[in-house]
């Protein structure tokens, strides 16, 4: 289990680093490219921001994400980092707040000068920062989900969570195959619940 978590964490970090070269403007890409191949650059470490829900309701999810990231970073840094540069993670607690996620996004981009962001954990937070990421061309990878109408660029933030529409359709097919023809679907007015309920019913 620990090896699987480390592998997943390393995979996430590598995806972030290399998708950075795709999403960022040409000027920024040149600097990051030089840094990753070992050419002179101002930064001594590869900085990645992680905005997670570390307190309040849902904190267990964010704390689990933090542990997985820490394991992956330790594994990569213990073998010399990437081209001699260690990975540095800057953590910030969103507290489950969309407005706080926006503030953290701006801090990461303008003050901390990270090359990419991991997170956030909640779809309301993802929906809040997705338009900013599209406008700025700033790469984000998230373990969460946000409705497509809230994501101007469906590829950024890059989501590693299974599409809930596919999940709902698979659940509906399974239920139907069991011979169940009538079922009640209970949910809230949350956009995620509505999408899943509609997909299941259809």
UniProtKB/TrEMBL annotation:
Annotated Leucine-binding protein domain ranges read: 45-200
The answer, when asked if Transmembrane helix is one of the entry's keywords, is: yes
Q: What keyword terms does UniProt attach to this protein?
A: Membrane, Signal, Transmembrane, Transmembrane helix
- Identify the InterPro entries for this entry: BCAA_transport, Leu-bd, Peripla_BP_I
Recorded hits in SUPFAM superfamilies, A to Z, give: Periplasmic binding protein-like I
Q: Which residues cross the membrane?
A: 6-24
Under the heading PANTHER family, the entry gives: LEUCINE-SPECIFIC-BINDING PROTEIN, PERIPLASMIC BINDING PROTEIN OF ABC TRANSPORTER FOR NATURAL AMINO ACIDS
What name does this protein carry?
A: Leucine-binding protein domain-containing protein
The species this protein belongs to is marine sediment metagenome
UniProt lineage: unclassified sequences, metagenomes, ecological metagenomes
């Amino acid at each position: 289990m620990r090896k699987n978590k480390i592998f997943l964490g390393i995979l996430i970090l590598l995806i972030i680093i290399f998708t950075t070269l795709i999403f960022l403007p040409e000027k920024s890409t040149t600097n990051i490219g030089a840094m990753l191949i070992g050419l002179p650059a101002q930064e001594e470490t590869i900085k990645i921001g992680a905005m997670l829900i570390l307190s309040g309701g849902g904190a267990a999810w964010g704390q689990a994400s933090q542990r997985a990231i820490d394991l992956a970073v330790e594994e990569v840094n213990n073998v010399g980092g990437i081209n001699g540069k260690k990975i540095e993670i800057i953590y910030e607690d969103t507290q489950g707040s969309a407005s706080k996620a926006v503030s953290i996004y701006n801090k990461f981009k303008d003050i901390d000068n990270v090359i990419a962001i991991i997170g956030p954990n909640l779809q309301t937070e993802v929906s809040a920062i997705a338009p900013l990421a599209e406008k700025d061309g700033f790469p984000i990878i998230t373990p969460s989900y946000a409705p497509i109408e809230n994501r101007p660029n469906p590829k950024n933030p890059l989501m590693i969570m299974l599409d809930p529409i596919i999940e709902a359709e698979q659940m509906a097919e399974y239920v139907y195959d069991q011979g169940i023809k009538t079922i009640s679907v209970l949910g809230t007015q949350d956009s995620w619940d509505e999408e899943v309920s509609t997909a299941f019913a259809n």
